[in-house]
Design goal:
Largest sheet: 3 strands, mixed
Structural class: mainly alpha
Number of helices: 24
Strand content: under 5%
Number of strands: 5
Distance between the termini: 35 Å
Order of helices and strands: HHHHHHHHHHHHHEHEEEEHHHHHHHHHH
């Protein structure tokens, strides 16, 4: 690591050193477009990551001491605080062995290995040659992943069986021989003809590695994991909540607040359901919209519809509520590959904008798409949600650091902004009655997440005034029943969500808690301006807030209130 004289220089050097260790980071950031290595998911690689983090924290101690009594300036102070918090919690998670049981239906090393190919450039012959080389090395990622799972098995650190079974089902879909092809063969089919043999051989190799991992999980890991509880308990839950949010939480306070949010949103949904379909419950009104509401027919058609929606949002919001830089005005709507989790998601642009930000819609085999539950979701995933925030971070990276604007982020600040963005579009009057029902359904989903994520993992009781199962202790089955009674989403989506919460403890609550911090920060900033007799310009506040870079929730509200 080259000598750094400021925390920001240290943070940038850390990113580049981390990219040396992890080609997934390099590809995600666009640092080395033709890096053909696969990630090393082994315990040895994790130890190298931990050693690097410790060296960085030692160097950071030195830089803070050298700053003397006057301390660091504000920009450097924020970077230092972020670096210390993020690296510290990752070291705690490593010491707890979280990487040795990373089996879940989203965001696992198994998913990360495949998703790398979706982030690689495909414009030139050299691009496809790199894909062929990397795909031929695909087994490296899964062999090293198994090494970590085996170390977890040796230490009796397991993922719960439901997570294993779900991942096995996803791997089945990736290499479904009944379809006559695999995801890997479909992906390389777009490559140049003179590389056909190399690409096909590489796809064969990757598909074989997936089949081998599937067999290992099914025949070796799953029997050993039998009896592993799905609830992770308080210690693991609080550790992971800090990991995903950058905040320490009071579970009792948040559980009570989650129920209050559930009741508030439920009352609003009931009033809107009466308007849409007199006498109907919210779920009945949404079933009516599924059958009789506006819709888009066709997978290609819905992708084009979502693209047009984001392009229009950029055109209408730029100069009024945001100042959107030119590179940020490009965002691509994509269809998620088969075998993905059910929820839509966003991938960031590369640090040079050569690869744009992208939103991804999992179709789950559907070809008809009701509009009411897509609109606010794409304000969340696209503009003014994830894309506007995360692409703005890339734009301001030279004034901050690559670390603050990419891998230093946590879900509380980013998912919180995306929920704030949905609410802001509602405040602006962008949503008609159908679309507001979808927006409120999304709000309800995030409130229910708070309740059931805490409830399932910490073994909490359902309040006595609950409309369902009062006094009972939360179980996954009860959580699904409660979710189905309060959501317009299809059952397969909700089942996927329950598995996600069980395998990713503490992440699901970051959405609503992040939104709470963004709203409180805005209110505090407005009040401070009014107290000083100054006008509060929301566009100016938005752009200053979006240019702060990553912050943990423990710091976010304070920083927002100062703007």
């Amino acid at each position: 690591m080259p000598h750094a004289s400021t925390p920001r220089q240290l943070a940038d050097a850390y990113v580049h050193d981390l990219a040396d260790l992890d080609p997934g980071i390099a590809t995600a950031l666009g640092l080395r477009p033709h890096d053909d290595r696969m990630p090393d998911n082994s315990p040895v690689a994790q130890q190298a990551h931990d050693d690097l983090a410790r060296r960085v924290l030692t160097d950071l101690d030195g830089l803070e001491a050298a700053a003397g009594p006057q301390g660091l300036d504000e920009t450097e102070r924020r970077c230092a605080a972020l670096l210390r918090d993020r690296l510290g919690i990752e070291l705690e998670a490593s010491a707890a062995g979280e990487h040795l049981r990373a089996v879940r239906n989203i965001g696992s090393p198994a998913h990360g290995a495949r998703s790398l190919f979706l982030l690689m450039p495909t414009s030139t012959h050299d691009d496809w040659a790199c894909i062929a080389r990397r795909m031929a090395r695909f087994p490296d990622a899964y062999t090293s992943y198994v090494d970590s799972l085996e170390e977890g098995r040796r230490r009796s650190l397991f993922a719960a069986p439901r997570q294993v079974e779900t991942l096995v089902d996803q791997l089945d879909e990736w290499v479904d021989a009944g379809a006559g092809s695999t995801w890997f063969h479909d992906f390389v089919s777009a490559g140049p003809e003179d590389l056909r043999a190399e690409l096909t051989d590489a796809a064969d190799t990757a598909a074989s590695a997936v089949a081998d991992l599937r067999e290992y999980l099914r025949a070796t890991y799953l029997p050993a994991a039998e009896g592993t509880p799905e609830a992770v308990g308080a210690d693991r839950y609080l550790l992971n909540a800090r990991r995903w949010m950058g905040a320490s939480i009071d579970p009792e306070e948040i559980y009570a607040w989650g129920w209050a949010e559930y009741r508030r949103i439920d009352a609003e949904m009931r009033g809107l359901a009466e308007q849409l379909l007199p006498g109907a419950t919210p779920v009945e009104a949404m079933r009516h919209l599924d059958e009789s509401g506006r819709r888009v027919e066709g997978v290609d058609e819905v992708r084009a519809w979502l693209q047009d929606m984001m392009d229009r949002a950029i055109g209408e919001l730029d100069g009024t509520h945001f100042d959107i830089a030119e590179p940020i005005k490009t965002v691509e709507a994509m269809i998620a590959p088969p075998g993905s989790a059910a929820a839509p998601y966003y991938t960031r642009p590369s640090i040079d904008f050569a690869r744009p930000g992208r939103t991804w819609l999992p179709t789950l085999g559907r070809t008809t798409f009701p509009v009411y539950d897509l609109v606010s979701t794409w304000y969340h995933e696209g503009v003014p949600g994830h894309h506007l925030q995360l692409a703005q971070w890339v734009h301001v990276a030279p004034q901050l650091s690559i670390y603050q604007t990419t891998i230093g982020s946590s879900a509380g600040a980013t998912e919180g902004w995306a929920l704030y963005a949905e609410r802001f579009m509602d405040e602006l009057g962008y949503l008609d009655a159908e679309e507001r029902m979808g927006y409120l359904d999304g709000q309800m989903m995030r409130a229910v997440r708070v309740v059931i994520d805490l409830g399932m993992h910490l073994g909490l009781s359902v309040p006595d005034d609950s409309p369902l199962a009062p006094g009972q202790t939360w179980t996954p089955e009860l959580a699904l029943e409660f979710f189905r009674a309060h959501s317009g989403r299809p059952r397969d989506f909700l089942e996927s969500e329950i598995v996600r919460y069980l395998g990713w403890p503490g992440q699901a609550i970051s959405y609503k808690l992040g939104e709470r911090a963004w709203l409180a920060g805005r209110a505090a900033a407005r009040a401070a301006h009014e107290e000083r007799g100054e006008p509060f310009d929301l566009k100016t506040w938005h752009m200053a807030a979006l240019s702060l870079g990553a912050l943990g929730l423990d710091d976010l509200e304070t920083e927002l209130s100062r703007l």
